[in-house]
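Researcher: Next entry in the queue.
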Amino acid sequence: MTSTAYQQMIFVNLPVTDLDAAKKFFTELGYSINPQFSDENAASVVISDTIVAMLLTKSFYSTFTKKEIADATTTSEVLICLSAESREKVDELVEKAGASGGTISDKVQDHGFMYGRAFDDLDGHTWEVVWMDPAAIQG
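Model: Structure for this entry, 139 residues:
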């Protein structure tokens, strides 16, 4: 159980091939870059008050791990899922990703109470966007 006074955050660290292109991609999706935690090696993409995607050049990313960096275009290392406030917002974000150079998955999950789509960013990281009917969550 988490305390209501403390909002735990998540920082998703992702290796990227071209930091400037990755920053442009995410700002075109409507997210901002926090310059306080960004430099020539990293960009801090603010998804929400509690979610930050840290885009790291591969050389900088490799300083945090001894493991081989996965090629997300051929290997799935993580599925990142974001919530959306409506079906329309799911479609809007996914379509923005496609228009900004991302690859839209042709798989749509529509279960009535839950609707989701996905896209791969420029480096192949998969982002799912899901809306769930609040009434279904409560019930």
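Model: The longest helix spans residues 87-99.
Researcher: Noted, moving on.
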